[in-house]
Amino acid sequence: MRIVVALGGNALLQRGQKPDAEVQEANVRRAVESLAPLAAEHELVVTHGNGPQVGVLALQSASDPHLTTPYPFDVLGAQTQGMIGYWLLQAMQNRLPGRQVAAIINQTLVEAADPAFADPTKFVGEMYTREQAARLASDRGWVVKPDGDGWRRVVGSPRPQRVVETRLIRLLLESGAVVVCAGGGGVPVIRDERGDLQGVEAVVDKDLTSAVLAEALDADVLLVVTDVEHVLRDFGTPDAAPILRETPAGLRSLDFAAGSMGPKVDAVCRFVELTGGMAAIGSLDDAVAILAGESGTIVTPNGRYDAATTAGPRKR
Ligand SMILES: Nc1ncnc2c1ncn2[C@@H]1O[C@H](COP(=O)(O)OP(=O)(O)O)[C@@H](O)[C@H]1O
Ligand SMILES: NC(=O)OP(=O)(O)O
To answer: Which residues belong to any copy of the Aspartate/glutamate/uridylate kinase domain (predicted)?
Structure first.
């Protein structure tokens, strides 16, 4: 099978952890431990988040006295692709000797007129108290919003339209390589009036980009892995209950939090609606169990899933 796995920012940096390289490298090794069995049997594309990391780089850049202007978010997004891509590349190569692994810088086309530029929703960087966030907003011109128990900076997150390097990713997959791409949702770009690509100030949602990419690659499965075993209905209430199997229409009839579960649900529904394939949201540690139908929230056109008929290896 051809599988696209979207690795949550939580997989790379758990809440409360300091964003030191060695902390994230250890988390990446744990992620790769979970994904390696999939790579051994299937064609595998790994995408990843960059919310915490791109916020750290933005702060560094804004504090650098040598710069006249801080680096814009397209440049910072490319930096996170290089950094996280390198960690994933090395961990995969160590865990899958003999297998080719490619980690590529890539761009995601968005629409210049997307209203999301004017209504920032994408959380970046670390968590602050309400008072700290208010001060940062006034000192640095940030937009800040509540995220769970704290406050974080938000930036515009236009909808991904197409991964520019889709053909290259397909070629790499067909050659047998594991491909790490679409990091941070891909570097956001538009085409100018001459048709040239040009970066824009935004951070694309990696789950939505993963759905666009998975569909364009004719993937069989889209796995969105994060720090919860299932999507919960009535999240945050005493009636919270795991959703095990669902149809896209069933999931879309429920409400999910913008900026966290909302885009993941949107991504898996979109993939299943467009392809008739299987998509799931679950825990990073359970990637193999999700495919076996033993964990996660599994979304299919009819809300049923038979691992024996779906999860066979794809001929390369
Ligand atoms: N309905 C829900 N079911 C489960 N988790 C939810 C739900 N709504 C919000 N969440 C929160 O979403 C988080 C996962 O989203 P997010 O933090 O954006 O993940 P990642 O960074 O891994 O992509 C969970 O840790 C949980 O706190
Ligand atoms: N770009 C992006 O979606 O990052 P996170 O998954 O870390 O929020």
So the answer is: 1-273
Query: pTM for the full model?
Result: 0.95
Confidence at residue 314, expressed as pLDDT on a 0 to 100 scale: 46
| Closest-approaching ligand to the CA atom of 242 | 1
Domains of the chain: 2-111+159-310 (3.40.1160.10), 120-155 (no CATH)
Token pair recorded at residue 274 = 């467009």
- Interatomic CA distance for residues 90 and 178, integer angstroms: 12
CA distance 278 to 298: 7
Segments of the chain scoring below 50 in pLDDT: 312-316
Residues near 103 by beta carbon (within 8 Å), at least 6 away in sequence: 81, 85, 86, 88, 89, 179, 180, 181
The pLDDT value given to residue 16: 83
Cα 285 from Cα 294, distance rounded (Å): 12
CA triplet 1, 34, 152: central angle to 5 degrees?
A: 105
The CA 70 to ligand 1 mean position distance, Å, reads 31
Q: Of all protein residues, whose CA lies closest to atom 6 belonging to ligand 2?
A: 49
Q: What whole-number distance in Å separates Cα of residue 160 and Cα of residue 233?
A: 27
State whether the beta carbon of 235 lies less than 6 angstroms from ligand 1.
yes
Closest-lying ligand 2 atom to the alpha carbon of residue 52:
7
Q: In this structure, which ligand is nearest to the CA of 157? A: 2
